[in-house]
Design goal:
The protein has 338 residues and is α/β, with parallel strands linked by helices. The protein has two domains: 236 residues, Rossmann fold; 95 residues, no CATH class. It is built from eleven helices and twelve strands. An eight-stranded mixed beta sheet has the order 6-7-8-3-9-10-12-11, with helices on both faces. Strands 2-1-4-5 form a four-stranded antiparallel beta sheet, with helices on one face. A hairpin with a 2-residue loop joins β11 and β12. α3 packs across α4, α3 runs parallel beside α5 and α4 crosses α5.
Length: 338
């Protein structure tokens, strides 16, 4: 069911892969539901291997979900076929993590952008030239780069070209998969500022996948926290960072280093144990329970349902309400409350 104001809704999505272990499957995305409003920038965070990228790739059509729905502007994409599906999917574009692997090194930048324009019916050479000039200008690149090859560009320039290619088809949704993590620190801020500028100027909705929690806090209006294929908490970003109510979210925030050396000198390791369990054999009940300092026998019984703690704030934890009522935030660089 579409809620007023939603542009994209992912409902109970499940995406599985065959495991390298014979006869076993990996459920990378397990009953996940998220939503984006028009022009909204939403964060998706979690440890490596939790299913963030698979969720993004499933939304854009690079992976095929086993069940669930992806609803764009009220239309269930699974109900479409052929040209109708391709035209709808064009409204959702993907910005990959690695700018070195996402571009064809045998094509000039101009040829790469012209190919995207041809797909949407812009075939006149002069119209393409003008549009390519506009796209390069939008991402802060000089017009002369159109004649160069990706191998001749820096990582930051390549990522800007990848963004321009996504914008060429005039999308309504961008799935940004760790788009600055492969870049040097000196250019991360520049590319991130570009995302924020484009988001503000063009009104494109963005799902921003990242493991940099501080970056997500600054850039997004809402945040989803994912663990071992499931969403364990979601809220407005300010609320989530001020009142994290799932032990995993608290541990993630407690692991953020502090810029204050006095705090950092006394910071203890966050209270999270061990490694992520095997996705081919996840724990029963709450999947975080094997690493959770607050786990009890009830956590193993069945998966906890989402609890609404405040308007728009949900957590899947049997003690989420208790943690929420502590009225305590987890400052950067400090362990979660005992």
């Amino acid at each position: 069911m579409r809620e007023a104001g939603d542009l994209l809704r992912v409902e109970n999505l499940v995406t599985r892969f065959k495991s390298v272990e014979r006869g076993k499957w990996v459920t990378a995305v397990d009953d996940v539901s998220i939503r984006l409003a028009p022009g909204e920038m939403v964060g998706l965070v979690g440890e490596s291997g939790c299913g963030k990228s698979t969720l993004g790739r499933s939304i854009v059509g690079l992976e095929r979900p086993q069940s669930g729905r992806i609803v764009l502007d009220g239309v269930d994409l699974s109900s479409l076929r052929g040209r109708a599906l391709r035209e709808r999917r064009r409204a959702i574009q993907y910005v990959f993590q690695d700018p070195y692997a996402s571009l064809n090194d045998r094509q000039t930048i101009g040829e790469t952008l012209a190919e995207a324009l041809t797909i949407i019916g812009v075939k006149d050479r002069e119209k393409q030239r003008r549009r390519i000039h506009t796209l390069l200008d939008q991402v802060g690149l000089p017009d002369g780069l159109a004649e160069r090859f990706p191998r001749e560009l820096s990582g930051g320039q390549r990522q800007r070209v990848a963004i321009a290619r996504s914008l060429a088809v005039e999308p309504r949704v961008l799935i940004c998969d760790e788009p600055v993590s492969a870049l040097d620190l000196s250019v991360r801020a520049q590319v991130m500022n570009l995302f924020l500028e484009l988001h503000g100027n063009l009104g494109v909705a963005c799902l921003f996948i990242a493991h940099d929690l501080a970056l997500v806090r600054q850039a997004t209006s809402r945040t989803y926290v994912m663990y071992l294929g499931r969403i364990v908490e979601d809220a407005a970003s300010a609320e989530l960072y001020a009142r994290p109510s799932h032990p995993y979210t608290q541990a993630l925030l407690g692991s953020i280093p502090s810029a204050d050396p006095r705090i950092e000198a006394h910071r203890e390791p966050p209270p999270i144990f061990g490694d992520i369990p095997s996705p081919t054999n996840p724990p029963s009940g709450c999947r975080f329970r094997t690493r959770c300092p607050r786990a009890t026998e009830i956590c193993a019984a069945s998966p906890p349902p989402p609890v609404e703690l405040a308007p728009g704030h949900h957590a899947r934890c049997v003690i989420a309400a208790e943690l929420h009522t502590l009225h305590r935030s987890v400052p950067h660089g400090l362990p979660m409350p005992a």
